Amino acid sequence: MTLQIRSLEQYHEAYRKSVEDPEGFWAEQASTFVWRKKWDSVLKNDFVTPDVQWFIGGKLNITENCLDRHIETRGDQIAIIWESNEAHEPSVKLTYRELLAEVNKCANALKAQGIGKGDRVCFYMPMIPQVAIAMLACARIGAIHSVVFAGFSANALAERIKDAQCKMVICSDYNRRGPKTIPVKSVVDEAISMGCDSVEKVLVYKSTGGKVKWDPNIDIWWHETVDNMGAECQAEVMDAEDMLFILYTSGSTGKPKGVVHTCGGYMVYTCYTFRNVFQYQDGDIYWCTADVGWITGHSYIIYGPLLAGATTMMFEGVPGHPDAGRFWHVCEKHRVNQFYTAPTAIRALMAAGWHAPEGYDLSSLKVIGSVGEPINEEAWHWYDEKVGHKRAPIVDTWWQTETGGIMITPLPHITDTKPCFASYPLPGVQPVLLDPNGVELEGNSVEGLLCIKYPWPSMLRTTYGDHERCRTNYFAAFHNMYFTGDGAKRDEDGRYRIIGRVDDVINVSGHRIGTAEVEDAINQHSGVVESAVVGYPHDIKGQGIYAYVKAHSEVVDEDHFRKEILDVVTKEIGPIAKPDKIQFVLQLPKTRSGKIMRRILRKIAEGQTDQLGDTSTLLNPECVEELKAGALE
Ligand code: WT7
Fold first, then answer.
1. Which residues line ligand 1 (CB under 6 A)?
2. What percent of the chain has pLDDT over 70?
3. Strands 168-172 and 120-124: what pairing?
4. How far is CA 583 from CA 296, 518, 611, 626, 628, in A?
5. Whose CA is nearest to atom 14 of ligand 1?
6. For the residues 163-180, what does the mean pLDDT come to?
7. Cα(301)–Cα(81) distance, rounded to whole angstroms?
8. Cα of 422 vs its chain's centroid, Å
């Protein structure tokens, strides 16, 4: 089993080794897995093209490491506990043996439908065990999963299906989220009708039993195919650098891009980080509340925990249903040992009642985690006191879709914690802070642009179908560096504090949204000339979305126009991208080269109108007064 650091001394030792001899360090980790053929060389290190490869020539199947290798030692141990949206419904438990059988049946069903190695399969699914089963089934046969968060609109889904040319879509009939039931299958139907010609079949899991429209030429019921298949399926032998999955994420420009992760390095890194960051011990119950539509769900609900032979919980619902005690109730019910959630959920639950968690027995918790956005000081202390009881340390984990796994984090019970600090790099991670000219800021007590200067096994390899985009986005800003898009501070003791994005990406409730995408959506409204979108601090969501909209003609009924804009954004992207505030303007502030000066718009949205700085370089400085006067509280 992958090495687990248990003391501060071991952390320093592992870190030192990982920097002095990265290849030796990662080869040692990799050797704890089952390989069909060992790698010929450990690393190709090219951060410029970029062309990074790990465990070159190695052959494996990640599902043999998630499932088969555990059967002998823990076949009857629970692999997945599923907790329903409805508090009164019983939990579902699957042992490793049962999970392997289900994965194999699903893999056989996919093969029977003509899905094979290298084919892309799109997922649009609720948080039910079948999403894990089907993702692993893809990995079993070498098909590439592309999971799309089921809160995205039909348009957004169609765009992603087309970009990856998916041959199949796997969905459910409906999706229960809190008090709502969302018609998933009909969104898929709509997406497919938008010219997704690559899709041959839609595999539908009956989750609620609600009525759906059915096309017998395309649609297949899960229970009519998967359930009839044999429970044995040979795992496809994959190259370490074969694609495992694509996951779309937003950037500062253009459409979302498909981040590509490969089999070998992702496997080694997610298992290593899961074992260490959560200090998982045999018998523990681990719960990450993320959705599988995001990287956190991929790496720390499914792959990392299963690789480590853990018991991982999946939760179908939302934090506030039926009430704000649901998380704590579930922790108590299952005696959860490691709990991993997002600051936005922490803030929402904190707002629901400062003392609320006191009514529950949270004594089983040993580690509590935070991910997705900076956690503010008040939320950190509440989490520490009311949930962790100052006994279970907070791991504030910094990472990204592109990094595949956790990069900077405290190690619980090993390194210290400090409010709002992601703290220390994990072994194998070499962060640096740069000034805007690319000069490395050495020493402590500095603030700059966060880059990583050496490859790590689970880093993205490319952006699907567009390698140049990967290069320009991440590797072109600074020579021989991976640029994260985040700004960070290093304190007097070398701990990192992530400040947030320095590009045009905003983080709304831990969801990453490109301002350009929201602008494109708003501009679809025929009454809109142009728009500019910025983030502003929001008590619960972390950041809210503030849109400045210039209309073709005078806006008579602002409320009505706002509603129409929200509808367009919901249709183009999904409800998560709806602006919180829309200010109608006569002009947007432009530089002489015609670029929108966002700095000014950000300051106004933040309510810092006295800090606009130099506005004299604007082409239209007179617009500033109007913008200030119309600013929304
Ligand atoms: C961006 C990546 C990593 C899984 C979920 C988000 C922000 C992430 C933290 C943290 C401060 C954080 C960064 C990063 N972020 N974790 N612990 N503290 N900021 O993945 O959607 O790819 O977003 O989330 O800005 O760049 P993602």
1. 249, 294-296, 371-374, 396-401, 422, 484-486, 498, 500-501, 507, 512
2. 100
3. parallel
4. 34, 14, 19, 11, 10
5. 400
6. 97
7. 11
8. 17
The angle subtended at Cα 424 by Cα 422 and Cα 427, nearest 5°, is 130
CA–centroid distance, 398 to ligand 1, in Å, is 6
Once rounded to an integer, what is the mean pLDDT over residues 611-619? 88
Distance from Cα 373 to the centre of ligand 1, integer Å: 5
Q: Give the number of the atom of ligand 1 that is nearest the alpha carbon of residue 498.
A: 11
Distance in Å from the first CA to the final CA of the chain? 54
42, 26 in Cβ contact below 8 A? Answer: yes
Whether 249 and 292 have beta carbons less than 8 Å apart is answered as no
Percent of the chain beyond pLDDT 90?
96
Tokens (6 digits) for 59 = 């052959």
Structure tokens at 508: 């709304």
User: Cβ neighbours of residue 83 under 8 Å, at least 6 residues apart?
Assistant: 91, 313, 314, 315, 316, 317, 330, 334
Nearest CA to ligand 1 atom 23: 400
Average pLDDT value for residue range 186-211: 97
* Phi, then psi, of 455 in degrees rounded to 5: -65, 150
Kindly state the average pLDDT of the residues 129-158: 98
Cis ω before 374 (30° cut-off from 0) = no
Among the listed residues 348, 121, 102, 367, the one whose alpha carbon sits nearest the alpha carbon of residue 243 = 121
Calculate ∠ Cα 167-169-171, nearest 5°: 170
> Do 67 and 309 form a contact (C-beta atoms < 8 A)?
no
Best residue among 495, 498, 517 to mutate for probing ligand 1's pocket (most ligand atoms within 8 Å of CB) is 498
In this prediction, residue 253 carries a pLDDT of 83
